[in-house]
Amino acid sequence: MLNPRFLVLLIIIVSVALVRFLPHPPNFTPILALAMFSGAYFTDKRYAYALAFGAMFLSDLALGLHTTMLFVYACFGLLVYYGIRLQNKSTNGRLMGAAAGSIGGPVVFFIVTNFGVWLTAGYYPLTFEGLTTAYVAAIPFFHYNLAATALFSAVLFGGYELAQRYFPALKPAAVHQN
Hints:
Layout: H1 4-18, H2 31-41, H3 45-63, H4 69-85, H5 91-120, H6 128-166, H7 173-176
Helix pairs in contact: 1-2, 1-3, 2-3, 2-4, 2-5, 2-6, 3-4, 4-5, 5-6
């Protein structure tokens, strides 16, 4: 378990989770990229989910819990699963999948979490008009999430793929065995 690959991935997950504590524009966080990355590179699904959710939850404990956590974590779990689906792809396939997830992930996140805000936060009436108002009010924040997910996905996926070329110990065990 404590091989170089696992340790490097663990350090990356913790470091990326800590980025949430730095000053940033609203919704400009690495959480969606972190979820995909965790799923894509931890070969044991249990670690992919446990470490990604653990890092997210610990940072949420410090930043504050909220009524839409169920919706946020559901999206987070979907993106870990999406990352797991990228594991057996070629390098190019994994990078293309990360690029697609960088667009699709924020779109799903926007739809699901703003539905959660409408449903649980008490800011909007529980009517179709209230739901529409919740989505419209969230539009100005969407581009931050989209940009952050694209940026952090490119850095995480691209950086790790590049690192694996120069440090074979970072590849999954089955890849660098004879």
